[in-house]
Design a protein that fits this description.
Layout: E1 5-9, H1 13-25, E2 29-33, H2 36-46, E3 50-54, H3 62-70, E4 87-91, H4 93-96, E5 112-115, H5 120-130
Parallel strand pairs: 1-2, 1-3, 3-4, 4-5
Helix pairs in contact: 2-3
Length: 133
């Protein structure tokens, strides 16, 4: 069986490294993108089984836009084949703003929200939950 492929979309190189190393050590194949635009292009290229997505990148809400684009119910969406690709959203937005968010199938179509700094054991458990072998 081939390795499950995870795409990390985050503008912070240190954060990408912090997430990538334990995922690779756990046996996952990992690709990285450093912006929302690059991430959307990489989705088509690498066809990930799961996406780890930062909220604040090019803009304060770039990650939300990526999630909405990927999970759009529009049957003509260029990303329709990725509509059910699970997304784990990483955020520090709760510690940097008064805004509060949670997964919502219509407005914030992600499976899990994890706060930065990331607890790697929690991340690995959630990935394993979403990508059973």
């Amino acid at each position: 069986m081939s390795k499950k492929h995870i795409l990390i979309i985050d503008d912070d190189p240190d954060q990408r490294l912090t997430v990538r190393l334990p995922l690779e050590a756990a046996g996952y194949q990992v690709s990285e993108a450093k912006s929302s635009e690059e991430g959307l292009g990489m989705v088509k290229q690498v066809r990930p089984d799961l996406i780890v997505l930062d909220v604040m990148m090019d803009t304060t809400t770039a990650g939300f836009q990526v999630a909405l684009t990927l999970h759009s119910p529009d049957p003509n969406s260029e990303y329709k084949e990725f509509r059910h690709t699970p997304i784990i959203m990483l955020t520090a937005i709760h510690s940097t703003t008064p805004l509060r968010f949670a997964p919502d199938s219509d407005y914030l179509p992600v499976e899990i929200f994890l706060e930065k700094p990331i607890d790697i054991e929690v991340l690995l458990a959630k990935v394993k939950e979403l990508l059973p072998q």
